[in-house]
Amino acid sequence: MKDFFALVEDRRSVRAFEARPVEPGLVERVLRAAQRAPSAGNLQAYEVVVVRDPQTIRSLAALCYNQTFIAQAPVVLVFCADPARSAVKYGAKGESLYALQDATIAAAYAELAVAALGLATCWVGAFDESELARRLKLRPGLRPIALFPVGWPAEQPARTPRRPFEEVVHEYQP
Predict the structure, then answer these.
(1) Less packed terminus of the chain by CB within 10 Å, N or C?
(2) Is the per-residue pLDDT at 2 higher than 70?
């Protein structure tokens, strides 16, 4: 297994997957890592839907504005915010912000866990939210916020450029 910093440096968004299954135990390891993510008030105001059915995965690709690479993946993870769960403790701020943060942090942990296991994914945030919720029969109130096709990589994308460190990071000066 890679050192954390090497993992962060080497992780790439992959949009091509080998035609081989991902063992359920590996998916479970990814999801258990996501479950360890910090959350506001430890409410864990999110849920994850695991999709393995190829026909359903193809329909999800269509709902993601025809990002057809999604249909190559043997597994898709859909991270959903649960605003009502967070609102119980934090009111409107929990509903509008904290639940989204909880789901996003869990998704980020999952993305790194996928890479640590030698698997690949690409964070997909462009989709028809209401149709995706309907297709997956999400209970009312759950909001899909990210979709991860997961599989064995069939490509090794080049490193994408980043803004200069000095442009992104600023130190406060009183």
Answers:
(1) C
(2) no
Q: Closest Cα partner for 122 from 45, 2, 40, 11?
A: 11
Q: Which two tokens stand for residue 15?
A: 């949009």
Question: For residue 97, what are the contacts with CB-CB under 8 A and spacing of at least 6?
Answer: none
Q: Look up tokens 């759950």; give the residue.
A: 142
The type of residue at 11 is R
**Integer Cα distance of 166 and 174 in angstroms:** 19
* Residue-range domains of the chain with CATH: 15-155 (3.40.109.10)
Nearest 5°: the CA angle 13, 14, 18 is 160
Span 16-39, pLDDT tens digits: 999 999 999 999 999 999 999 999
Helix (H) or strand (E) holding 11: none
Which residues contact residue 69 at a Cβ distance below 8 angstroms, ignoring those fewer than 6 apart? 15, 16, 17, 61, 122, 149
